[in-house]
Amino acid sequence: MSEATLTISPVENEIKPRTEVNGHDSSMLISMRNIWKTYQMGTESVHALHGVSFDIPRGEYIAIIGPSGSGKSTLMNLIGCLDTPTQGQYWLNGKNVSEMDDDELARIRNQEVGFVFQTFNLLARATALHNVELPLIYGGVSASQRHEMAKQALKAVDLSDRITHKPNELSGGQRQRVAIARALVNHPSILLADEPTGALDSHTSMEIMDLFERLHSEGNTIIVVTHEHDIAARAHRVVSIRDGLIEKDERIR
Amino acid sequence: MIRLAAIWEAFRVATASLRANKLRTALTLMGIVVGVSAVIAVVTIIDGLNQTVAQTFSSQGSTVFTISKNPQIIKSREEFVKFNRRKDVTHEDAEAITRLCTACWRVGIAANAIETVKYANQKAENVRIRGIDPLTMFEIDGRTIDVGRIWTESEGASGREICVIGPDMLKNLFAEAPADKAVGQEIRIDGRPYLVLGVLEPLGSILGFSRDNVVYIPYSTYQKAYGGRRSLVAFIQVPSAEQLEAAEDQVRTIMRNRRHSSGDGDDEGFALETQDVFLNLYGSATSNIYIVTVLVSGVSLIVGAIVVMNIMLVSVTERTKEIGIRKAVGARRKDILTQFLIEAVTVTALGGVIGVGTGFGLAYVISALIGFPLLISAASAALGVGISSLAGILSGMWPAWRAARLDPIEALRAE
């Protein structure tokens, strides 16, 4: 297996004409239509999202920005298939995930989504290699293939010399790179990063953002959720969320 | 379908987390270990006892029954008083049975006394002196001569001080000398000298009581030494177990006639018993021990299972974040469920294995102390581990289900 397998083939869909099927654009990697998320707080209904619609084509590098309480975390959870919308339709890579049950969502997360979290969320007792293997274990990949794929993913984030280290033996930047390797190991459709530099110093933050840029140039679709404007500015498109609605959606490069 | 890799991952995680919390693991194991080792120890000990008892009683077998004044087991004071009013079983009763019972094969009488036996400056205490008549009583008792001879019929009737000794006498009186050294020697019982004619083959011991700590003497001699007014026990043997019932019926009729009893309601005036009395008593005693042990160990297994459940709930709470991470990367409910179930079963199965080990160890010590064979059965070992694994599944179910149902978003937020 070569490094090239980590890249998703460059965007073809962008040039195709938009084709609406069943109310969604089938050429889009992500297509959200009138998404509502309502939480029941006692007798009161709180709308975290009210009617959000947008599309993300394959290979895009997009930032979702908004202050806390804006609904961006809710939106991220929905995009990452950790949750389902109260109302509305969400197609991810051609699959309608808005009505899936827990186990189907787990499968989608396993196959289609690579998460990068602010606090890395690595298993403390496991080595870097084992952490990266984790999605493959639940994906049913054989042990030898798992090792090979995990090593390749760690190589892609320049951590080949740290594969037997446990998280507490790694620096913050290295931990985040392990998390990125874990996110990429299954060749997901999207790399979904939630405040990926929130726990890092500015120098390490830049390194991680450079890595994202490189991964994007290799064809990965990257979604970064952040409240920091300079992090959002590294993306090619910025979607601003406020009060559960899309306030602005602009292409910046 | 649960993937093999996920199961292996679960097992790996389980053992790692058990290793990481050694003290907690040890405490968790305790209840299961106590429960399982109690069951294993008792089952093993009772198996050993059963084998000993079965072997012992089959040597006399179920072809022999007895007529006596008092039954072997007296259940109450009232019974004791009632039996003491009965007439003694006498030589004449035995003769009547010999004469009248056509289904009977061998009939003999025996009376016992406990004495101290001396030879030179050696002495053996608590020796059973068994006065018997006729010579077939040796066969009824399942006794065979090892060295020397038994007395002749005329010697037996003469009242002379002659005897045949059990092999324990060699050990206790003759300093483990070979049997032929004892033959022809004179031993003293209650001050009277007895000539040793022969030495018996050993029969071994039941539950620590030797059956070879015995001296056989002719009944005529016994009568001379201890008086004729003691109640006898008449032994009746039939050729095979099938004839037992017919012989018992005949003997019962003969004895009722001699005691002028009707057999309906009022006391018959004698006790007719087979060795089954012992076996039944033994069986009911051991089955009670079984039941008590099963209850006690059942309780300790339940307590153990509750401890495991408690610890697993703590473990789930502690590892909420880990569960969230696993769910985020694609673990399904059943993957998480399996992981925690396997963890619970790993603990309890480990407890089961340790419990089986200590149970056998305990049984070994006790069997060595009491003196019966240790029967280590693979079935009881498998049962011990099986039951404890089952306890693991039952106690792990609820915590595992809680873990599996955790919302990944909530779980990821946990610290």
User: And the CATH topology of chain A?
Assistant: Rossmann fold
Report how far apart the termini of chain A are: 33 Å
Note the overall shape of chain B: elongated
If helices are DSSP runs of H or I spanning 4 or more residues, what is the number of helices of chain A?
A: 7
Overall shape of chain A: it is globular
Q: Largest sheet of chain B, described in full?
A: 6 strands, mixed, barrel
CATH homologous superfamily assignment of chain A: P-loop containing nucleotide triphosphate hydrolases
Query: What is the topology, as strand order, of the major beta sheet of chain A?
Result: 8-9-10-5-11-12
Tally of structural domains of chain A: 1
Distance N terminus to C terminus of chain B?
A: 31 Å
How many alpha or pi helices of chain B? 15
Q: What is the level-2 CATH architecture name of chain A?
A: 3-Layer(aba) Sandwich
Number of strands of chain B: 12
Strand arrangement within the widest β-sheet of chain B reads 2-3-10-5-7-6
Give, in order, the helices and strands of chain B.
HHEHHEEHEHEHHEEEEEHEHEHHHHH
Give the uncertain stretches of chain B in residue-range form.
Answer: none
Structural class of chain A: alpha/beta
